[in-house]
Amino acid sequence: MINIAILGFGVVGGGITEVIRENAESLKSYVGDEIYVKKILDLRDFPDSPYGDRVVHDINEIIRDDTISVVCETMGGVNPAFDFSVAVMKSGKSMVTANKELVAKRGIELCEIARDCGVLYLFEPSVGGGIPEIRSMRSSLAGDTVTAIDGILNGTTNYILTSMERDGADFATALKEAQRLGYAEANPSADVDGLDAQRKIMILTAVATNNLVCESDVYTETMTGITPEDMDAAKRWGGTVKLLGSSRIDKDSASLYVCPCFVPKSSLLSSVSDVYNAVSVVSPVTGDVMYYGRGAGRMPTAGAVVSDVACILSGLAAKEKPCAWQAAPEGWARPFSENSFEYYVRVKTDLATEALESARLSFGAVKVLEGAPEGCVEYITVKTKEDITSKLISEGSLGNVESVIRIMN
Question: pLDDT tens across 57-79, in order?
């Protein structure tokens, strides 16, 4: 019997016990022994749970237990998760985490501590829930160089945008339904303002490059301003609207950003709906690869945690090259303003001819989008630098702009 422990007995932590119970025989066959959840750390008691007698309230009860081999951290947040993780690894135990905020903010230190202590620190569940993209990127693409990453990295926002496209709902209505179904928190800011996707694209870029950037290096834009008119325009253009976490990587630098984008129907990302996630990775040797699946939820994320645990206990993870991330060198993260995009622009005006003439003078050329709402003109620009477009809007050169959305490139 191999003993493990869980930090946090919430949605994912509780799911871990279910996955282990329901897959006991297959796990035993893979690992070579039975996996037993010996202790669970939580502030609460769970008298009605079959695992209630294993709940402890002091992390030291886990740290001092030499029979525990692996600890699963599903607490969320940075503190006390960071201190607990450090203490656990210094006691000789390996760690698995689903905590994307912790990995994004303190991943360099945690990976270094794991190496120094001769243990393992795995975080497959921190991005994409049950989608096994991190291990695949680190192994299957090991001989290649990732040049671009685009991801639908948040199930809540993808559900909201799917509902707006499918049902014609406005943002507030779609959000309320997502909250009713349990997809969105009472305070949905981390999702709809892009912070969750921000952390995940930071992690994916670090997996691809070994450079972990700061949050301030990632341009992050809310999706709360997306309207039914935007969704309709995207459909007439030949695509849809998605909140993307993106990274554009070259030899000496990278640009990371999170923002709503028009995604063409020719892209597989456009067909990813509801709470599903997908990550598209481009490299010169392998070409385009897409990972797809449930990006969140109790069982998919818990399954990814257990998979990492099994990789550690089977010895497979010890044969993999450990992460050796570093803080991105100064200047490595390119300013978002240097990126170039085509843009969808909607201008409220009764003088369409004049508005289009101003647009052509500003951008050089534009493509008119037919079927604009009454009293508006819509067009697609040529590829233009972000700082130029921002200046044109702020100066009022384009008129009464109602909406500007970048087009995925």
Answer: 999 999 999 999 999 999 999 99
3 state SS of 320: coil
Average pLDDT rounded to a whole number, residues 281-297: 92
Tokens 């493509």 identify what position? 367
- What is each CA distance from 229 to 23, 293, 307, 344, 403, in whole angstroms? 47, 29, 43, 12, 9
Q: Which of 39, 93, 100, 200 is catalytic?
A: 200
Buried b (16+ CB within 10 A) or exposed e, 147-161: bbbbbbbbbbbbbbb
Q: How many CA atoms lie within 13 A of 249 on its CB side?
A: 26
- Phi, psi (deg, nearest 5) at residue 128: 80, 15
Distance separating alpha carbons of residues 117 and 88, to the nearest angstrom:
10
Residue 406 has pLDDT above 90, yes or no: yes
Tokens matching residue 292: 């797809």
Distances, alpha carbon 339 to alpha carbons 187, 387, 408, in Å: 32, 8, 12
- Whose tokens are 């871990």? That residue is 16
With cut-offs at 50, 70 and 90, classify the pLDDT of residue 182. Answer: confident
Flag whether the pTM goes above 0.85.
yes
> What is the C-alpha to C-alpha distance for residues 373 and 197, in angstroms, rounded to an integer?
32
- The rounded distance, in Å, linking the Cα atoms of 23 and 16 is 11
Structure tokens of 270?
């456009």
Average pLDDT, the chain: 96
Distance CA 15, CA 244 (A): 28
Query: Could you tell me how far CA 73 lies from the centroid of its own chain?
Result: 18
Q: Is 200 a catalytic residue?
A: yes
Q: DSSP states of 43-102 as a string?
A: SS--TTSTTGGGEES-THHHHT-TTEEEEEE---SSTTHHHHHHHHHHTT-EEEE--HHH
